[in-house]
Amino acid sequence: MSPHTRRTILKVAALLAPGIALALFVLGGAGLLLAPLDAAGRDRIVAAVAPALDSHGVILLAWWLAAAALGAYGVQRLVTDYVAAPGRLAEATQALVSDAAAPDVAAEGARPVRAVATAVNALAAQRRGMQQDMARLVEDASRNVAQQRDQLATLMAQLQQSVVVCNRDGRILLYNARALGLVRRLTRTARGSAGTELMGLGRSIHGVVDRALIAHAREMVALRLGRGESEGVSARFVTTTPSGHLLRVLLAPVGADAGTAGGAGGFVLLLDDITDEYDVQARRDLALAGLTEASRASLASMQAALDMLDYPDLVQEERDAFQTVVRDEVAAMGGRLAALVADASNDLKTRWPLQDMLGTDLAAAIVHRLAEETGTAPGIDGVAADLWLSVDSFALIEAVAALARRLADPPRALELRLSRAAGRAHLDLAFTGALPAADALAAWQADPMRSGESASPLSVRDVAERHDGAVWFERTADGSGGCFRFLLLLAGASAGLAAPALVPGAARPEYYDFDLFAAGAAARSQDDVSLGSLAYTVFDTETTGLDPGGGDEIIQIGATRIVNGRLLRGECFDELVDPGRSIPEAGIAIHHITPQMVRGRPPIGEVLPAFHAFAADTVLVGHNVAFDMRFLKLKEASCKVVFDQPVLDTLLLASIVHPNAGQHALEAIAARLGVSVSARHNALGDALVTAEVFLRLVPLLRQRGIETLGDARAAAEESYYARLRY
Predict the structure, then answer these.
(1) Measured CA angle at 565 (ends 561, 569), to 5 deg
(2) Catalytic residue among 245, 426, 658, 681
(3) Is 681 a catalytic residue?
């Protein structure tokens, strides 16, 4: 029987039930009236009533039953239209209020109720339209914000200034590659380590600059803001780094700290390493002080000698002696001035930093300058469009122009060539014509450059050396000409300032995260913090064997960071370790780390403190992490570090999310969660896979009510795998 037929039968039964009940009531009442009578009495009453029933009684009873049924139907319709229908309307409306995607309410019941249902559906449709419009606006705004972030990231990457932006608590939320290179150079603690820098999203700037200095600078800024100043409010100070460098810091407020309405507030730091500048200035001040003292003594000697020369009765022998004093002092003063000028020239040679420049732009600028100098533009051999150089373009163009002026007498045909060569670049000023004499070629490179009446303290060779390169002359094989060749740096090859290497497969390093503006220093414990709000260091180790207590050692540590739910592939730690013992052949087949690869690498005593600094203020995450932590704990005392931060294990968390899964190996979990696995049994490769797995586990844990770090740790302790010990 179909549901529709069943509902129809029930409705008919509901309509007939009152009439049937009434008939039964009447018949039952008649039976009760007749029951006390004897058979003769009942027969007499039936005989008296029968004629009436035969004629009009049946018709009357039928009308009576029909009226009862009609009344019952009316009552049922009233209940359906004015009681049941409004109830269903209220329930459907509540569903629409909670979810605009819910189905429209049914237009049923009395006309007023249907009118309300129609109005509710119209409002729901209007709400859906508004939500769609809002979603489009949000999408457009998000796209614009993303474009602005990308533009800002590009601008920051091109800045020659080291820039760091922090929130109020000193957590880094933005920095550029030059700041990373500067801090990496000044704070590196492990030889050859790729991840010992203290710069990173979510890290504390107080690991680089002393907290008290920043607090004092912010107080000075607040005082100036309190006096009503608004333009150019900043504070400057100089501090020393553990490596002995001098760091000049400019602090400026942003957001609410700058007095603007709203915003979380924070501050910007501009960092400069002024060690060399300070050394130059100190030497100059010392030289000037020495020159002043020596000149004062010389002047006193000359004044005394001149006073004696004024005596008319001075014998010639004494006069000659005093004149000798004057000449000697003048010569000494001249020598001191010459030495001071020479020192100033040497300082000038290294004063200006090199800048990145496109090779085609440099070649075009040189051609333009030579055309002005000689009246003829030299030819250009093909220059690669993607060739970037690190140069002092002004000094380099001056050096090439100085050589071109020398080659102009007699006139020679010039050609410019620029090409890559063994990790460097060759800039050639080639010519055809008479070859200069060997001593002239040497003098052209070593003598100070001249342009008209003006002279430079630099020579062509000085300019080449400033570029960490060289210059030399080469003759052509047939003797028809030659070229002056400059050896130059490629962009990014400057020591300490190169952008950090990216992990294979990463599009670019994530150097910014504006969401960290909202991350404050919480008064509550970390156990009460949601999993999505914490910073994590996901790590893995490779070892000589599986017995940490039996002499096996760490041979590689790899780690990456997660901040604000984002995997920061540009902030990684990857270090091979010299274990100080042999590596078994059975292990080499797994991790592919040979004794030759770790020979000469830093020992664990250098690498573990560097990793400890990398993982500071974060939650440690690993797969079967009890094994790795056992190795770290055994080295804490000898390395003078303590890993006391919370630890999460993806093995335990996966066993909570998938309790019925048979396998919880990293590959099996990754397959279940759709994470691709590469570079297996490489510490950094495994750490990256573990990080991806952890990010996929967090929302699954949230569905099970595991929201905070404390929830995750408590749930992990209940896992069967938590019983494993190493």
Answers:
(1) 35
(2) 681
(3) yes
